[in-house]
Specification:
single chain, 396 residues, alpha/beta, Aspartate Aminotransferase, domain 1, Aspartate Aminotransferase, domain 2, 7-stranded mixed β-sheet, 4-stranded antiparallel β-sheet, binds pyridoxal-5'-phosphate
Length: 396
Protein backbone atom coordinates (compact mmCIF):
# COMPACT_ATOMS: atom_id res chain seq x y z
CA UNK A 1 0.00 0.00 0.00
CA UNK A 2 1.27 3.43 -0.88
CA UNK A 3 2.28 5.45 2.17
CA UNK A 4 1.97 9.22 1.84
CA UNK A 5 4.16 11.52 3.90
CA UNK A 6 1.86 11.75 6.90
CA UNK A 7 3.89 14.64 8.31
CA UNK A 8 1.82 16.86 6.01
CA UNK A 9 -1.12 16.26 8.35
CA UNK A 10 0.92 17.79 11.20
CA UNK A 11 1.10 21.16 9.44
CA UNK A 12 -1.14 23.90 10.74
CA UNK A 13 -4.11 23.97 8.38
CA UNK A 14 -4.16 27.62 7.44
CA UNK A 15 -1.27 29.67 6.30
CA UNK A 16 -0.75 33.11 7.82
CA UNK A 17 -0.95 35.11 4.60
CA UNK A 18 -3.97 33.15 3.42
CA UNK A 19 -5.82 34.14 6.62
CA UNK A 20 -4.82 37.76 6.17
CA UNK A 21 -6.04 37.71 2.57
CA UNK A 22 -9.37 36.17 3.65
CA UNK A 23 -9.96 38.77 6.38
CA UNK A 24 -8.93 41.60 4.08
CA UNK A 25 -11.26 40.35 1.37
CA UNK A 26 -14.14 40.14 3.83
CA UNK A 27 -13.49 43.80 4.68
CA UNK A 28 -13.23 45.01 1.06
CA UNK A 29 -16.39 43.08 0.11
CA UNK A 30 -18.27 45.28 2.59
CA UNK A 31 -16.22 48.45 1.86
CA UNK A 32 -15.45 48.21 -1.87
CA UNK A 33 -14.24 51.84 -2.07
CA UNK A 34 -11.78 51.63 0.83
CA UNK A 35 -8.19 52.47 -0.08
CA UNK A 36 -6.19 49.88 1.82
CA UNK A 37 -2.66 50.69 2.94
CA UNK A 38 -0.84 47.41 2.49
CA UNK A 39 2.02 46.97 4.94
CA UNK A 40 1.48 43.25 5.28
CA UNK A 41 3.21 40.84 2.94
CA UNK A 42 6.95 41.35 2.46
CA UNK A 43 6.85 41.71 -1.31
CA UNK A 44 8.82 44.46 -3.03
CA UNK A 45 7.08 47.19 -5.03
CA UNK A 46 9.95 48.89 -6.91
CA UNK A 47 11.01 47.61 -10.34
CA UNK A 48 14.31 45.94 -11.20
CA UNK A 49 17.17 48.40 -11.62
CA UNK A 50 18.41 49.53 -15.05
CA UNK A 51 21.62 47.52 -14.99
CA UNK A 52 19.69 44.31 -14.39
CA UNK A 53 17.12 45.11 -17.07
CA UNK A 54 19.89 45.79 -19.63
CA UNK A 55 21.63 42.51 -18.74
CA UNK A 56 18.34 40.61 -19.07
CA UNK A 57 17.61 42.18 -22.48
CA UNK A 58 21.08 41.46 -23.71
CA UNK A 59 20.84 37.83 -22.53
CA UNK A 60 17.55 37.45 -24.40
CA UNK A 61 19.34 38.69 -27.53
CA UNK A 62 22.11 36.13 -26.93
CA UNK A 63 19.49 33.41 -27.10
CA UNK A 64 18.46 34.66 -30.57
CA UNK A 65 21.85 33.99 -32.23
CA UNK A 66 23.45 30.65 -32.94
CA UNK A 67 26.88 31.94 -31.84
CA UNK A 68 25.73 33.14 -28.42
CA UNK A 69 22.83 30.78 -27.75
CA UNK A 70 23.00 28.85 -24.45
CA UNK A 71 21.31 25.54 -23.72
CA UNK A 72 21.41 23.83 -20.34
CA UNK A 73 23.38 25.77 -17.76
CA UNK A 74 25.66 23.98 -15.27
CA UNK A 75 23.31 22.77 -12.51
CA UNK A 76 25.23 24.49 -9.71
CA UNK A 77 25.56 27.81 -11.53
CA UNK A 78 27.30 29.49 -14.45
CA UNK A 79 30.91 30.54 -13.86
CA UNK A 80 30.05 34.19 -14.51
CA UNK A 81 27.34 34.06 -11.82
CA UNK A 82 29.57 32.36 -9.26
CA UNK A 83 32.35 34.87 -9.94
CA UNK A 84 29.91 37.74 -9.43
CA UNK A 85 28.82 36.34 -6.03
CA UNK A 86 32.47 35.66 -5.16
CA UNK A 87 33.36 39.31 -5.80
CA UNK A 88 30.39 40.44 -3.71
CA UNK A 89 31.68 38.47 -0.71
CA UNK A 90 35.22 39.74 -1.33
CA UNK A 91 33.95 43.25 -0.61
CA UNK A 92 33.61 42.12 2.99
CA UNK A 93 36.83 40.12 2.93
CA UNK A 94 35.08 36.75 2.75
CA UNK A 95 36.95 34.41 0.39
CA UNK A 96 34.88 31.73 -1.26
CA UNK A 97 35.89 29.33 -4.00
CA UNK A 98 33.56 29.15 -6.99
CA UNK A 99 32.77 25.55 -6.06
CA UNK A 100 31.34 26.71 -2.75
CA UNK A 101 28.69 28.88 -4.45
CA UNK A 102 25.46 27.41 -5.82
CA UNK A 103 22.90 29.32 -7.85
CA UNK A 104 19.27 28.86 -6.85
CA UNK A 105 15.78 29.92 -7.81
CA UNK A 106 15.46 31.75 -4.51
CA UNK A 107 15.80 31.14 -0.81
CA UNK A 108 12.43 29.44 -0.28
CA UNK A 109 13.32 26.58 -2.59
CA UNK A 110 16.66 26.15 -0.87
CA UNK A 111 15.31 26.33 2.69
CA UNK A 112 13.15 23.31 1.91
CA UNK A 113 15.49 21.41 -0.42
CA UNK A 114 18.55 21.76 1.84
CA UNK A 115 16.91 19.36 4.30
CA UNK A 116 17.74 16.60 1.81
CA UNK A 117 21.23 16.75 3.28
CA UNK A 118 20.04 15.64 6.71
CA UNK A 119 18.64 12.38 8.02
CA UNK A 120 15.07 12.43 9.40
CA UNK A 121 16.47 11.66 12.83
CA UNK A 122 17.66 15.16 13.66
CA UNK A 123 16.61 17.83 16.11
CA UNK A 124 16.12 21.32 14.76
CA UNK A 125 16.37 24.52 16.76
CA UNK A 126 14.24 27.40 15.55
CA UNK A 127 14.40 30.80 17.23
CA UNK A 128 10.92 32.23 17.52
CA UNK A 129 9.31 34.38 16.26
CA UNK A 130 10.36 32.75 13.00
CA UNK A 131 9.77 32.82 9.27
CA UNK A 132 7.02 30.15 8.98
CA UNK A 133 8.78 28.15 6.25
CA UNK A 134 11.49 26.98 8.68
CA UNK A 135 8.93 25.26 10.85
CA UNK A 136 6.83 23.86 8.02
CA UNK A 137 9.77 22.49 6.00
CA UNK A 138 11.03 20.67 9.09
CA UNK A 139 7.61 19.29 9.97
CA UNK A 140 7.38 17.89 6.42
CA UNK A 141 10.89 16.42 6.81
CA UNK A 142 9.81 14.74 10.06
CA UNK A 143 12.42 16.46 12.23
CA UNK A 144 12.00 17.09 15.94
CA UNK A 145 11.64 20.82 16.48
CA UNK A 146 12.74 22.81 19.51
CA UNK A 147 11.42 26.36 19.65
CA UNK A 148 13.70 28.87 21.34
CA UNK A 149 11.63 31.93 22.26
CA UNK A 150 13.18 35.37 21.95
CA UNK A 151 11.84 38.69 23.17
CA UNK A 152 12.54 42.36 23.52
CA UNK A 153 14.87 41.73 26.50
CA UNK A 154 17.40 39.94 24.24
CA UNK A 155 16.69 42.24 21.27
CA UNK A 156 15.08 39.23 19.55
CA UNK A 157 18.56 37.83 18.93
CA UNK A 158 19.25 35.41 21.78
CA UNK A 159 22.49 33.73 22.75
CA UNK A 160 22.61 29.93 22.47
CA UNK A 161 21.09 28.04 25.37
CA UNK A 162 23.78 25.59 26.45
CA UNK A 163 21.17 23.27 27.96
CA UNK A 164 19.62 22.59 24.52
CA UNK A 165 21.07 19.98 22.20
CA UNK A 166 20.26 20.58 18.57
CA UNK A 167 21.63 19.23 15.30
CA UNK A 168 20.37 21.87 12.89
CA UNK A 169 20.05 25.52 13.89
CA UNK A 170 18.27 28.25 11.95
CA UNK A 171 19.58 31.78 12.26
CA UNK A 172 18.09 34.64 10.28
CA UNK A 173 19.81 38.02 10.40
CA UNK A 174 18.47 40.58 9.65
CA UNK A 175 15.41 38.78 10.85
CA UNK A 176 11.98 38.31 9.39
CA UNK A 177 9.70 39.17 11.19
CA UNK A 178 11.49 41.08 13.97
CA UNK A 179 14.03 43.08 11.96
CA UNK A 180 16.57 42.11 14.65
CA UNK A 181 20.22 41.47 13.79
CA UNK A 182 22.90 39.31 15.36
CA UNK A 183 26.08 41.10 16.37
CA UNK A 184 29.46 39.59 15.53
CA UNK A 185 29.85 38.61 19.17
CA UNK A 186 26.49 36.80 19.31
CA UNK A 187 27.12 35.01 16.03
CA UNK A 188 30.55 33.91 17.29
CA UNK A 189 28.78 32.31 20.29
CA UNK A 190 26.43 30.43 17.95
CA UNK A 191 29.35 29.25 15.81
CA UNK A 192 31.15 27.99 18.92
CA UNK A 193 27.98 26.25 20.15
CA UNK A 194 27.44 24.58 16.75
CA UNK A 195 31.04 23.41 16.39
CA UNK A 196 31.06 21.99 19.95
CA UNK A 197 27.93 19.93 19.18
CA UNK A 198 28.76 19.05 15.58
CA UNK A 199 25.58 20.88 14.67
CA UNK A 200 25.00 22.76 11.43
CA UNK A 201 23.77 26.34 11.24
CA UNK A 202 21.50 27.26 8.36
CA UNK A 203 22.06 31.00 8.07
CA UNK A 204 19.35 32.86 6.19
CA UNK A 205 20.90 36.04 4.80
CA UNK A 206 17.93 37.09 2.63
CA UNK A 207 17.96 40.62 4.10
CA UNK A 208 21.71 41.25 4.35
CA UNK A 209 21.60 44.14 1.87
CA UNK A 210 19.54 46.18 4.37
CA UNK A 211 22.29 46.24 7.00
CA UNK A 212 23.65 49.72 7.57
CA UNK A 213 25.47 49.33 10.90
CA UNK A 214 29.12 48.60 10.10
CA UNK A 215 29.53 46.16 12.98
CA UNK A 216 26.69 43.82 11.95
CA UNK A 217 27.93 40.87 9.84
CA UNK A 218 26.29 40.38 6.44
CA UNK A 219 27.42 36.78 6.22
CA UNK A 220 28.02 34.03 8.78
CA UNK A 221 31.32 33.50 6.99
CA UNK A 222 32.60 36.74 8.50
CA UNK A 223 32.85 34.74 11.75
CA UNK A 224 35.91 32.63 12.55
CA UNK A 225 35.12 28.93 12.73
CA UNK A 226 31.95 29.17 10.64
CA UNK A 227 33.37 27.24 7.69
CA UNK A 228 33.14 24.02 9.69
CA UNK A 229 29.54 24.50 10.82
CA UNK A 230 27.47 26.71 8.50
CA UNK A 231 25.50 26.86 5.29
CA UNK A 232 24.36 30.26 4.05
CA UNK A 233 21.19 30.74 2.03
CA UNK A 234 20.66 34.04 0.31
CA UNK A 235 18.39 35.59 -2.24
CA UNK A 236 18.12 38.49 -4.64
CA UNK A 237 14.40 38.84 -3.86
CA UNK A 238 14.69 41.63 -1.33
CA UNK A 239 18.23 42.72 -2.23
CA UNK A 240 17.37 43.54 -5.82
CA UNK A 241 13.61 43.17 -6.26
CA UNK A 242 13.76 39.62 -7.65
CA UNK A 243 10.66 38.28 -5.88
CA UNK A 244 8.96 37.69 -9.22
CA UNK A 245 12.14 37.18 -11.24
CA UNK A 246 13.60 34.47 -8.92
CA UNK A 247 17.28 33.99 -8.26
CA UNK A 248 19.39 33.36 -5.20
CA UNK A 249 22.51 31.58 -4.04
CA UNK A 250 23.65 29.15 -1.39
CA UNK A 251 27.13 28.81 0.05
CA UNK A 252 28.44 25.50 1.39
CA UNK A 253 32.09 25.52 2.47
CA UNK A 254 34.36 22.63 1.53
CA UNK A 255 35.27 22.07 5.21
CA UNK A 256 31.68 21.32 6.25
CA UNK A 257 31.44 17.59 6.86
CA UNK A 258 29.76 15.26 9.34
CA UNK A 259 30.19 11.50 9.74
CA UNK A 260 32.79 11.59 6.98
CA UNK A 261 30.35 13.09 4.47
CA UNK A 262 31.01 16.42 2.77
CA UNK A 263 27.90 18.57 2.50
CA UNK A 264 29.30 20.41 -0.50
CA UNK A 265 29.68 17.21 -2.56
CA UNK A 266 26.28 16.00 -1.38
CA UNK A 267 24.69 19.26 -2.54
CA UNK A 268 26.41 18.99 -5.93
CA UNK A 269 24.88 15.51 -6.20
CA UNK A 270 21.48 16.81 -5.08
CA UNK A 271 21.47 19.72 -7.56
CA UNK A 272 22.71 17.64 -10.49
CA UNK A 273 20.02 15.06 -9.77
CA UNK A 274 17.07 17.28 -8.95
CA UNK A 275 17.60 20.44 -11.00
CA UNK A 276 18.81 21.57 -14.38
CA UNK A 277 20.06 24.85 -13.02
CA UNK A 278 18.71 28.36 -13.37
CA UNK A 279 18.18 29.88 -16.81
CA UNK A 280 21.02 31.66 -18.58
CA UNK A 281 18.91 34.81 -18.91
CA UNK A 282 18.20 35.01 -15.18
CA UNK A 283 21.77 34.33 -14.18
CA UNK A 284 22.93 37.16 -16.47
CA UNK A 285 20.41 39.51 -14.87
CA UNK A 286 21.38 38.35 -11.38
CA UNK A 287 25.12 38.69 -12.02
CA UNK A 288 24.51 42.33 -13.02
CA UNK A 289 23.27 43.04 -9.48
CA UNK A 290 26.81 42.55 -8.17
CA UNK A 291 28.51 45.00 -10.54
CA UNK A 292 29.46 48.43 -9.11
CA UNK A 293 26.64 49.98 -11.13
CA UNK A 294 24.15 47.34 -9.97
CA UNK A 295 25.10 47.71 -6.32
CA UNK A 296 24.72 51.50 -6.50
CA UNK A 297 21.30 51.19 -8.14
CA UNK A 298 19.86 48.59 -5.78
CA UNK A 299 21.09 50.72 -2.88
CA UNK A 300 18.89 53.56 -4.11
CA UNK A 301 15.80 51.31 -3.98
CA UNK A 302 16.75 50.06 -0.53
CA UNK A 303 17.05 53.69 0.60
CA UNK A 304 13.46 54.28 -0.51
CA UNK A 305 12.25 51.35 1.60
CA UNK A 306 14.32 52.67 4.49
CA UNK A 307 12.70 56.09 4.16
CA UNK A 308 9.36 54.29 4.66
CA UNK A 309 10.77 52.76 7.82
CA UNK A 310 11.83 56.15 9.17
CA UNK A 311 8.32 57.56 8.75
CA UNK A 312 6.71 54.62 10.56
CA UNK A 313 9.34 54.58 13.32
CA UNK A 314 8.75 58.26 13.96
CA UNK A 315 4.97 57.70 14.23
CA UNK A 316 5.46 54.80 16.65
CA UNK A 317 7.80 56.87 18.80
CA UNK A 318 5.26 59.69 18.98
CA UNK A 319 2.67 57.13 20.13
CA UNK A 320 5.03 55.62 22.71
CA UNK A 321 4.82 52.21 21.02
CA UNK A 322 7.96 50.09 21.47
CA UNK A 323 9.40 48.43 18.39
CA UNK A 324 12.42 46.65 17.01
CA UNK A 325 13.84 46.63 13.44
CA UNK A 326 13.40 49.24 10.73
CA UNK A 327 17.06 50.22 10.72
CA UNK A 328 18.95 47.22 9.32
CA UNK A 329 15.86 45.49 8.00
CA UNK A 330 12.71 46.20 5.99
CA UNK A 331 10.42 45.14 8.84
CA UNK A 332 9.21 46.87 11.97
CA UNK A 333 8.12 44.61 14.80
CA UNK A 334 6.02 46.50 17.27
CA UNK A 335 4.56 45.72 20.64
CA UNK A 336 0.76 45.75 20.37
CA UNK A 337 -0.54 48.84 22.19
CA UNK A 338 -3.36 48.81 24.75
CA UNK A 339 -2.76 45.15 25.72
CA UNK A 340 -4.18 43.98 22.41
CA UNK A 341 -3.38 40.57 20.97
CA UNK A 342 -1.93 40.56 17.48
CA UNK A 343 -5.08 39.46 15.61
CA UNK A 344 -7.07 42.06 17.58
CA UNK A 345 -4.64 44.74 16.45
CA UNK A 346 -4.92 43.41 12.90
CA UNK A 347 -8.70 43.91 12.97
CA UNK A 348 -8.45 47.31 14.64
CA UNK A 349 -5.93 48.63 12.10
CA UNK A 350 -7.96 47.24 9.21
CA UNK A 351 -11.29 48.60 10.39
CA UNK A 352 -10.23 51.94 11.86
CA UNK A 353 -7.25 52.84 9.66
CA UNK A 354 -7.53 50.56 6.60
CA UNK A 355 -3.98 49.39 7.28
CA UNK A 356 -3.13 45.77 6.51
CA UNK A 357 -0.27 44.42 8.62
CA UNK A 358 0.83 41.01 9.81
CA UNK A 359 -0.15 39.65 13.24
CA UNK A 360 2.84 38.43 15.22
CA UNK A 361 0.98 35.27 16.24
CA UNK A 362 1.63 33.98 12.72
CA UNK A 363 5.34 33.71 13.52
CA UNK A 364 5.03 31.59 16.64
CA UNK A 365 3.56 31.73 20.11
CA UNK A 366 5.89 34.43 21.40
CA UNK A 367 4.67 36.76 18.65
CA UNK A 368 1.17 36.93 20.08
CA UNK A 369 1.56 40.44 21.47
CA UNK A 370 3.53 41.79 18.49
CA UNK A 371 2.76 42.99 15.01
CA UNK A 372 4.85 43.24 11.84
CA UNK A 373 4.76 46.15 9.42
CA UNK A 374 6.55 45.78 6.10
CA UNK A 375 8.46 48.74 4.62
CA UNK A 376 8.20 47.50 1.05
CA UNK A 377 4.98 49.39 0.41
CA UNK A 378 4.23 52.46 -1.63
CA UNK A 379 5.87 55.62 -0.20
CA UNK A 380 2.73 57.78 -0.06
CA UNK A 381 0.64 54.90 1.35
CA UNK A 382 3.25 54.34 4.05
CA UNK A 383 3.24 58.04 4.96
CA UNK A 384 -0.55 57.92 5.15
CA UNK A 385 -0.37 54.79 7.31
CA UNK A 386 1.97 56.64 9.69
CA UNK A 387 -0.53 59.51 9.96
CA UNK A 388 -3.37 57.10 10.70
CA UNK A 389 -1.32 55.23 13.31
CA UNK A 390 -0.68 58.55 15.05
CA UNK A 391 -4.35 59.50 14.85
CA UNK A 392 -5.33 56.17 16.42
CA UNK A 393 -2.75 55.82 19.17
CA UNK A 394 -1.17 59.16 20.00
CA UNK A 395 -2.28 60.36 23.41
CA UNK A 396 -3.86 63.84 23.30
N1 LIG B 1 13.96 33.86 4.02
C1 LIG B 1 13.28 34.83 4.63
C2 LIG B 1 13.63 35.18 6.03
C3 LIG B 1 12.26 35.50 3.96
O1 LIG B 1 11.58 36.48 4.58
C4 LIG B 1 11.95 35.13 2.63
C5 LIG B 1 10.87 35.79 1.90
O2 LIG B 1 10.14 36.61 2.36
C6 LIG B 1 12.67 34.11 2.06
C7 LIG B 1 13.67 33.49 2.78
C8 LIG B 1 12.35 33.61 0.69
O3 LIG B 1 12.84 34.43 -0.30
P1 LIG B 1 12.79 34.03 -1.82
O4 LIG B 1 11.93 35.05 -2.49
O5 LIG B 1 14.21 34.11 -2.27
O6 LIG B 1 12.25 32.66 -1.96
Amino acid sequence: MIKPNTHYSELKSSYLFYNIAQKTKAYTDIHPDAHLLRLGIGDVTLPLCDTVIKALHSAVDDQAQKETFQGYMPECGADFFKQAVQSYYKRRSVSLSEDEIFVSSGASDELGDILDLFDDDNTVLIIEPAYPAYVDANIIAGHRIIHLPSDISDDFAPYPDESIDADIIYLCSPNNPTGATFTKEKLAQWVKYANERSAVIIFDAAYEAFIEDEEIPHSIFEIDGSRTCAIEISSLSKTAGFTGTRCGYTVIPMELERAGMKFNSMWVRSRTTKTNGVSYILQRGAAAVFTDEGIAQIKKNIEIYKSNAKVIMSALEKCGIRYCGGKNAPYIWLECPDDLESWELFSLLLEKAQIVGTPGAGFGKCGERYFRLSMFGDVSDTAEAARRIEALFKAE
